[in-house]
Structures are given as C-alpha cells and as structure tokens.
From TrEMBL:
It comes from the Eukaryota. GO terms for cellular component: BORC complex. InterPro entries: KXD1-like, KxDL_dom. Coiled coil: none annotated. GO terms for biological process: lysosome localization. It comes from Hibiscus syriacus (Rose of Sharon). Residues 106-125 are annotated as: Disordered. This is KxDL domain-containing protein. Residues 22-106 form the KxDL domain. Belongs to the KXD1 family.
Length: 125
C-alpha cells in the first residue's frame, strides 16, 4: 500500500508541476480578454436566440391565421374547376349536337377549334 500511495503522490506532484508550468505560458490579461469575449459572444447568442424564438412564435401565429383561409380558398378553387369542367363538357356536347343538326353552323374552323380546346385549369394539390 505504501508503494501505491507514493506512486499516487508522485503523479499528483507531477501533475501540479505541469499545471504550474502551463500557467506560466499564459498571460492572465489574455485569459481575461478571452473570458470577456466569450461572455460578449454568449450575450449576443442569447439575444439572437430570443429574437428567433419570438419570430418563430409570430410565424406560427400568422400561419394559424392564414392556413384556414388557404384551405378554404383551395376548396373553392377545386369546386370552381369542377364547375368549369362541367360547363365546358356541356358546351362541347351542345356544339356536337349543333354540328350534327346544322353542319354549316360553324363555317370557319376557328370557331369550332375554340370549343374543341379544353382550358388548362389545373389546381395545385
């Protein structure tokens, strides 16, 4: 046991000597300057964090207000699209009936092409 205690004591003494010599390599003013800069950076990071937290809360609030309007408007656009699809389908069938009954009803082909074209009314999902 005595040998083990002597070994621990020698390790402790060596550790203290290395620590003392390491302290002589550093200037206390430099350490104070580094500590001051670290505190300054910490304060700025805490301020930035507070600002970002406030912005996130504000964004969440705005999204909650707008999301219901957005959903309602999306449903309305989908409904309008289906209504317009139905209208154009009826117009095409009416044109087909008119063309079958009166072949000369549309003498110029441009009028016929207008009714043949289907508008691109895609609503994003």
């Amino acid at each position: 046991m005595a040998e083990s205690e002597k070994e621990i004591e020698s390790i402790r003494a060596a550790s203290n000597e290395v620590s003392r010599q390491f302290k002589t390599l550093l200037d206390p003013n430099d350490l104070d300057s580094l500590k001051h800069l670290q505190l300054l950076i910490l304060g700025r990071l805490q301020d930035s964090n507070a600002v970002l937290s406030h912005f996130n809360e504000y964004s969440e609030h705005c999204f909650a207000e707008v999301s219901s309007d957005f959903s309602r408007n999306t449903r309305m656009l989908k409904s309008m699209k289906s209504d317009l699809d139905y209208i154009f389908q009826k117009l095409r069938s009416m044109k087909a009936k008119i063309m079958a009954t009166y072949p000369d009803a549309f003498p110029d082909e441009s009028t016929g092409e207008v009714f043949d074209q289907r508008p691109n009314l895609e609503v994003p999902q």
